[in-house]
Amino acid sequence: MDVAEAFMAGVRDLKEGVQLQRVISALQRGDLQAAQDALNLNRAAFHPLEAKLTEAFVAGGQGAVASMPVAVSVGFRFDPGNQRAATWIRSFAGSLIAGLIENEVQQARDILADGMARGASPRSVALELVGRVTRTGAREGGLIGLSGPHRDYVRTAYAELTSGDPAALRHYLTRARRDRRFDRTITKAIREGRAIPAETARTITGRYSARLLQLRGEVIARTEGLPAIRAAKREAFQQLLDDRRVDAMEIVRGWSTTTDGRQRDTHDAMNGQEVRGLDAPFVSPSGAHFHYPGDRSLGAPAEEVIACRCDEYITIRRWPL
User: Are residues 150 and 272 in the same domain?
Assistant: First the structure.
């Protein structure tokens, strides 16, 4: 299980933990707080994600040691139990999971409140959140686990499908993450000038929602999983310094950009940038500073770190050069 899969496992746990009938009953009574409580949204569901981030951190540190010159690394081991290392990964994973749950709680409350205000069926509001049970017995679709923008995409997609408007239906066909197996159904509806039946539209948007959730897991893996590995690499070299095996200024760090045409312009310009020691930051043309790609500890904005695929190489260069 990788970081993306661990995130998906956490979302499945959240959905399975919803007491659906209690949510429906609370909405029927107009009790928003009771409906929210019945969702049982808590951080324990993301324990697999926390464990996977810790595993990535440990693997990153061990990998860094394996890449060190034998002359300085013989007998040296990465210690994930080091107080500094343990504090970093605990804080990193804890902050991520707290943010995920806070987002889920707030957005779920907004969806429940909106459904009540619209006078929507309590059951339809609850199922919009948790998804519907498929023939396999698993829940598919639902808004739990999606980011705010992705939740809006799902809702807009459903409106397009049930609108009967050919232009809206054609717009749905431009959605990159749609399940293309339904395209024939939609093009037929366009030809016949009719809307997609509500139940079919729910099935289609359920698949669309599942794919957007997978995308979010992939983004979290790149945005959170890779920085954990890079932070561990930095920690491994810091432990090497602590052991007085090298001098800080013998450590050279370089920025390595993934150059496949999808890289950020700022990161493209940083490719090959080198700094000495562990504390000197990499500097983006935007003015953002990083200890390593994806690092936010120096105030780098989201547009510089989200889904960053760049890497950092660290070498030891003895004097004189």
Answer: no
Same domain, 32 and 166: yes
Nearest partner of 211 among 158, 184, 175, 187, judged by Cα: 175
CA 227 to chain centre: 12
Q: Tell me the sheet residues that pair with 252.
A: 276, 315
Do residue 203 and residue 273 come from a single domain? no
- 209 and 256 both lie in a single domain: no
The C-alpha atoms of residue 128 and residue 20 are separated, in whole angstroms, by 11
Last residue of a domain, one of 185, 220, 255: 220
Structural domain includes residue 234: no
Give the amino acid at 87.
Answer: T
Task: For residues 57 and 191, state if they share a domain.
Answer: yes
Tens digits of per-residue pLDDT, 61-108?
A: 999 999 999 989 999 999 999 999 999 999 999 999 999 999 999 999
Phi, psi of 242 (to 5 degrees): -60, -35
In a domain, residue 231? The reply is: no
Query: What tens digit of pLDDT does each residue of 114-139 get?
Result: 999 999 999 999 999 998 887 777 77
If DSSP codes are grouped into helix, strand and coil, which group holds residue 312? strand
Q: Where does residue 158 fall: left (phi above 0), alpha (psi -120 to 50 degrees), or beta otherwise?
A: alpha
CB atoms < 10 A from the CB of 138, how many? 12
Question: Who's near 111: CB < 8 A, 6+ residues apart?
Answer: 125, 128, 129, 143, 151
Say what the pTM is.
0.87
The residues, ordered by sequence, that sit 6+ positions from 22 with a Cβ below 8 Å of its Cβ are: 34, 35, 38
